[in-house]
């Protein structure tokens, strides 16, 4: 029958959605439960009573989770600003500025995408140590604050799609290269810039390995490391751990709700899930 195949497709999609959303639902339910209820009732039970004690204890207590959120937010913001500025300048040079060896240099730089990020951990750690920046805020920011090959590739391809006639007309009016970039190219490239903004924020908000390696103690701990440390620091207090995971999800959820269209577009551009 005609409805059999669509029904099977929707059934598979619903099942996939349930399996995907169930861990997040469990995290939220546990975050707002009293610890005693979590110990004696099913994990799927509704919070009774609904309490914010876990959230308050997490932010104001010795876990210093509120500080971890601020450190992560500030680091991700600085990385975003640095990457956008440097990537836009480099991509425009590769797309529209003629200089010897332009294409060869671009493909050599792009080939660094093939290097696994884990390979760079030890060299970056040694560099930060020699510079005296280990276990500091700048050790979280500087290794990622400059142009990334992925961002340059996306921006270059987008810039090359902008009609050359617009740039030529601006130059006839006396515009400099920087004027053309700021007044014409960047405004026309808002969709791809929004895409890179979302990808960069999500990527560095969820960064775990590098912050774990380069920092120690709680002063410059980021959200991911702070959440992982709760499992050993507060052994068995799963309501507190789930409160941390819920708080860590809130900024990304808000980001998705506000920029949902751009987020879906970012999946199209990046080919990632």
TrEMBL record:
Gene3D superfamilies: MetI-like. The keyword Transmembrane applies. It is a multi-pass membrane protein. PROSITE patterns: ABC_TM1. GO terms for biological process: transmembrane transport. It is found in: Cell membrane. InterPro entries: MetI-like, MetI-like_sf. It comes from the Bacteria. The chain crosses the membrane at residues 7-32, 68-94, 106-125, 137-159, 180-202, 238-259. Keywords: Cell membrane, Membrane, Transmembrane, Transmembrane helix, Transport. Its main location: membrane. GO terms for cellular component: plasma membrane. Belongs to the binding-protein-dependent transport system permease family. This is Carbohydrate ABC transporter membrane protein 2, CUT1 family.
């Amino acid at each position: 029958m005609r409805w059999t195949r669509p029904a099977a497709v929707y059934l598979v999609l619903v099942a996939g959605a349930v399996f995907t959303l169930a861990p997040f639902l469990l995290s939220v339910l546990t975050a707002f439960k009293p610890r005693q209820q979590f110990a004696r009732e099913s994990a799927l039970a509704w919070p009774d009573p609904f309490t914010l004690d876990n959230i308050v204890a997490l932010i104001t207590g010795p876990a210093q989770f509120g500080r971890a959120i601020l450190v992560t937010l500030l680091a991700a913001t600085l990385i975003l600003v640095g990457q956008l500025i440097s990537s836009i300048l480099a991509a425009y040079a590769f797309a529209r500025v003629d200089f010897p060896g332009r294409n060869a240099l671009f493909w050599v730089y792009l080939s660094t995408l093939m290097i696994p990020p884990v390979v760079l951990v030890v060299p970056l750690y040694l560099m930060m140590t020699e510079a005296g920046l280990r276990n500091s805020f700048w050790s979280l920011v500087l290794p990622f604050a400059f142009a990334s090959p992925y961002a340059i590739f996306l921006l270059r391809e987008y810039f090359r799609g902008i009609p050359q006639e617009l740039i030529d007309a601006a130059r006839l009016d006396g515009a400099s290269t920087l004027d053309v970039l700021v007044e014409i190219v960047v405004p026309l490239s808002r969709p791809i810039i929004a895409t890179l903004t979302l990808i960069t924020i999500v990527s560095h908000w969820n960064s775990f390995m590098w912050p774990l390696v380069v920092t120690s103690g709680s002063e410059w701990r980021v959200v991911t490391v702070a959440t992982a440390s709760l499992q050993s620091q507060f052994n068995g207090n799963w309501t507190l751990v789930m409160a941390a995971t819920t708080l860590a999800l809130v900024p990304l959820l808000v980001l998705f709700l506000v920029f949902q269209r751009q987020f879906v577009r970012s999946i199209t551009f990046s080919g990632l899930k």
